[in-house]
UniProtKB/TrEMBL annotation:
InterPro entries in UniProt: NAD(P)-bd_dom_sf, Sc_DH/Rdtase_CS, SDR_fam
SUPFAM superfamilies: NAD(P)-binding Rossmann-fold domains
Keywords (A to Z) from UniProt: Oxidoreductase
Domain of life: Bacteria
Record organism: Streptomyces flaveus
Name of this chain's protein: Oxidoreductase
């Protein structure tokens, strides 16, 4: 991915990693459109950062995605980068019947939302110079966190989906690069870890990810250092130990 001169749509751009990426990429000389459900935050972002555009989008709602596609096609015909970052993460107890709704919400937002966004926006990207789909997954795609079983499963599925997407697009000569971003814990409000010493400060995460992107413009996976031992657990033969660590045993 080139570092400047892109037109980039970022889902989940109202807070945390998505907003952080939006601000850094805007500063670097890209046109950025942030998307999310919280209109008041979108209004604040566009008021505070002239040049950033905003779009109300609920990735759980196919009609909202279809409207967003039509809006962006008309307002930003140069769109060449889609960042699928929107996500939710909540604890889920598989023995509590209420957990089923939590599970379904994760599949709808994290997995189906990304898949629907990809189908909707790929026609706008194919054939563009320097086109990219960037999917934000997680270290938990590679070893699950048992307290968030369906969250972890959606991220494993998104890793798998990203691999197939990359190969199908290359096979079709579509000229769309697929990049997976693999964070470990980052201090955001995702699951209340904004003050956690065990999570990476957001600024450090952004600096490392954008550094990796600069170093490896054709890279498939951007794995930040704290995620590396989880990403490589299977290859290193340490999977059982890492899973036990995730379990707290
Ligand atoms: N922070 C971490 O430790 C960590 C680690 C690994 C992976 N990740 C991944 O990083 C991504 C960003 O998370 P974050 O940590 O930055 O958390 P965050 O601050 O809670 O951001 C989540 C974003 O997703 C958006 N979102 C949620 N549901 C949505 C929906 N139905 N439609 C559209 N947007 C929706 C939210 O915007 P609205 O509420 O305005 O819609 C918000 O902007 C997620 O995919 C997460 O799984 C985070």
């Amino acid at each position: 991915m080139k570092m400047t001169g892109n037109t980039i749509l970022i889902t989940g751009g109202t807070s945390g990693i998505g907003l952080g990426l939006a601000l850094r990429l805007h500063e670097a000389g890209n046109k950025v459109i942030v998307a999310g459900r919280r209109k008041e935050l979108l209004d604040e972002i566009t008021a505070e950062h002239p040049g950033i555009d905003a779009l109300v989008l609920d990735v759980a709602d196919p009609d909202s995605i279809a409207r967003a596609r039509e809006t962006v096609a008309a307002s930003h015909p140069g769109l060449n980068v889609l960042v699928n970052n929107a996500g939710i993460m909540l604890p889920e107890n598989l023995l509590d019947p209420a957990g089923l709704q939590v599970a379904e919400d994760h599949v709808t937002v994290n997995l189906l939302g990304t898949i629907r966004m990809t189908y909707a926006f790929l026609p706008l990207l194919v054939g563009k110079d320097d086109a990219v789909v960037m999917n934000v997954t997680s270290a938990l795609a590679f070893v699950p966190f048992p307290s968030t079983p369906t969250y972890s499963a959606t991220k494993a599925a998104l890793h798998s989906f990203s691999e197939s997407l990359r190969i199908q697009l290359a096979g079709a000569g579509a000229g769309v690069q697929v990049v997976e971003v693999v964070p470990a814990g980052v201090r955001t409000t995702l699951m209340g870890q904004q003050d956690s010493e065990q999570s990476m400060p957001l600024d450090d995460f952004l600096t490392e990810v954008l550094g990796l992107l600069r170093e490896k413009p054709d890279g498939k996976e951007l794995v930040v250092e704290p995620a590396r031992f989880i990403r490589d657990a299977v290859a290193n033969g340490s999977y059982d130990d890492v899973l036990a660590m995730m379990t707290g045993s």
